[in-house]
């Protein structure tokens, strides 16, 4: 129970840290959204933002926002990592048209944070 409480606090902090990035949408997916997370489970986030930056630069920008916090240094409270998927609305549309089942599942089952 304490682990889940710590993770919920981390997710809330990540949500606040992402506001300056101005995402159109942030969706929590994976074990914390629809499964039973384990001790080392990571936090999976899909971020939708209209940008012309290359995908790796988008990820770097977000990691620079969220990993500046000291809460990621306490491996007892937060043993996992944060995994990011960052797409533009156009890329999301393309992925769905290609039949990307993960993106579809994220939009159907994920927990919208922003």
Account of the protein in words:
By secondary structure, the chain is α+β, with helices and mostly antiparallel strands. It has a single domain, classed as 2-Layer Sandwich (Beta Polymerase, domain 2), CATH 3.30.460.10. The protein has 5 helices and 4 strands. It has helices at residues 2-18, 31-34, 55-66, 89-97, 101-109; strands at 25-29, 43-48, 82-87, 111-112. Strands 3-2-1-4 form a 4-stranded mixed β-sheet. Helix 3 links the parallel strand 2 and strand 3. The radius of gyration is 14 Å and the shape is globular. The mean pLDDT is 87.
List keywords for this structure.
alpha+beta; globular; four-stranded mixed sheet; single chain; 17% strand; 114 residues
Give the fraction of residues assigned to helices.
Answer: 40-55%
- Computed Rg: 14 Å
Question: Largest sheet, if any?
Answer: 4 strands, mixed
Overall, the morphology is globular
Q: What do we call the CATH homologous superfamily?
A: Beta Polymerase, domain 2
Question: Summarize this, please?
Answer:
With 114 residues, the chain is an alpha+beta fold. The chain contains 5 helices and 4 strands; from the N terminus they run H-E-H-E-H-E-H-H-E.
How is the topology of this model organized?
Elements: H1 2-18, E1 25-29, H2 31-34, E2 43-48, H3 55-66, E3 82-87, H4 89-97, H5 101-109, E4 111-112
Parallel strand pairs: 2-3
Antiparallel strand pairs: 1-2, 1-4
């Amino acid at each position: 129970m304490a682990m889940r409480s710590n993770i919920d606090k981390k997710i809330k902090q990540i949500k606040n840290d992402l506001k300056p990035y101005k995402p159109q949408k942030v969706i929590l997916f994976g074990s914390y959204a629809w499964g039973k997370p384990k001790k080392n489970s990571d936090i999976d986030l899909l971020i939708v933002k209209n940008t012309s930056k290359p995908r790796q630069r988008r990820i770097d920008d977000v990691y620079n926002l969220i990993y500046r916090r000291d809460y990621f240094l306490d491996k007892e409270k937060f043993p996992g990592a944060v995994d990011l998927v960052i797409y533009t609305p156009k890329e999301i549309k393309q992925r769905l048209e290609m039949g990307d089942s993960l993106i579809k599942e994220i939009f159907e089952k994920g927990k919208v944070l922003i």
